[in-house]
Amino acid sequence: MLDAVLIPGGGLTESGDVVPWVQARLDRAIALRPQPSYFIPLSAGTTHKPPPRDTNGFPMMESVAAAHYLVSQGISPTQILPETVSFDTIGNAYFARIQHTDPLGLRHLHIITSAFHLPRVEVIFKWIFDFPAMPHAYHLTFEAVPNVGISDASLLARWRKEQTSLTHVMALRSHLTSLLDLHRWLYSSHDAYAVSRQPTRMTGPALATY
What we know:
Blueprint: E1 4-7, H1 20-31, E2 38-41, H2 62-72, H3 89-104, E3 108-114, H4 118-129, E4 139-145, H5 152-175, H6 179-189
Parallel strand pairs: 1-2, 1-3, 3-4
Helix pairs in contact: 3-4, 4-5
């Protein structure tokens, strides 16, 4: 029995709806049988472009939009735990762990993402959820869904970016070996979280996949 299914974010439309490749992740999560105890949509947004805004002018979070989609498909709001802090995949894993899975003792986790994203997701989540902290080890499983709704040019550019990012993650994994190490690095060196850093806006076809 799964304690939770985790669904990384992957962008919103200008109107604040989940994009097709994220909807495919959510639809697969809904189809799991037996259903997990919790659905944990991930991500506040991305540093690569500004978030869409609602009718009152407030920024819309990817995980909250995903939560609304889950509710529209019949999932009870009491089963949905949005992760509302992260701006990248490393943050997805770190904040999901400290915000939800550690406090609630959720150990059997299934992570669903798009095929283009899965290799990096698997490395990052295994790395971060293997840090000691809980009295019991985590048990992670992974699943890819098709890369729907993405042009060939954007998908190729994203694959290339994923490979570069994965190489960077592998280097980080070799010397960040605890939650404390990761916390220090996030808030001293990561472009999305450290006050001293400034995220670089992305350009080119890969931007369409965020």
